[in-house]
Amino acid sequence: MSFPYPDRPGPRRHDPLIPGFRPWEPEPDPPRRDPLPPSRILAFETDRLVEMRVVMAHGHLDGERAAELCSRLMTLDALGEGRPITLHLRLESAGLEAAFSVLDTMDVLTCPVHALVVGRLGGAALLVLAGARRREITPNAMIRMVEPAERFDGTAAEMALFEEQHRRQVEVFYDRLARLTGRPAEEIRDDARRGRVLGAEQARAYGFVHDITGTAPPGLA
After folding, report:
1. Of 39, 70, 129, 173, which is least packed with CB atoms within 10 Å of its CB?
2. Are 116 and 89 in contact (CB under 8 A)?
3. What are the CA-CA distances from residue 4 to residues 8, 12, 199 (Å)?
4. How far is CA 148 from CA 89, 195, 199, in A?
């Protein structure tokens, strides 16, 4: 003789449908909005930066990026009516010619350019910092002094011409940094050849920046 399992459910009962009554059905999920594609997000961020008159310069500055940076600076200069442009700098390296092209562009702008170092800045990219009228650095950013170096290919005669041109550009590089910091060019050259790294406080003391952003003024800390 067998006994039914006490927890086993009994047979399912099917009640007859009542006229006008619909059995419960789960509500459909609301339609989901597709996220904005990356291109539209980038366009929105770019528009906001234009409104704020902020230009970002990150990574390695080569000829192509220098051309884009110069184009943005010139566009904001034409639309700015004298309002300053804020340039966020995190350039770990740069081609010497690319850096000079940005510097020359900044020198002819009618709007003042304010630079903010937000990461590591070094090498020839220091010329971009030198072109700014007002210069600041974040507390955890740093400046690495390195003598610019370039690679050349070609015949022996072409190599000699390239080396001579590069030597003249390096001299101008140190002269511009000397004007920026108020220090002798030879001192800057020695520090660059040693690869000296400056923290925020050291960069201010050296003369690269005017102030450290995000810190309280003296006497209020």
Report:
1. 39
2. yes
3. 8, 16, 81
4. 18, 11, 20
Token pair in block for residue 133: 């009228």
Ramachandran area for residue 32 (φ above 0: left; ψ -120 to 50: alpha; else beta): beta
* pTM listed for this prediction: 0.73
pLDDT attached to residue 74 = 94
Cα separation, 167 vs 94, in Å, equals 16
| Other Cβ atoms within 10 Å of 188 Cβ, number | 24
- The answer to whether the CB of 184 falls within 8 A of the CB of 111 is no
C-alpha span between 96 and 123 (Å, rounded): 9
- Report the share of the chain in percent with pLDDT over 90: 61
Strands 197-198 and 120-122: unpaired
Rounded distance, CA 197 to CA 145, Å?
A: 6
Report the distance separating Cα 154 and Cα 156, nearest Å. 7
d(CA 137, CA 139): 7
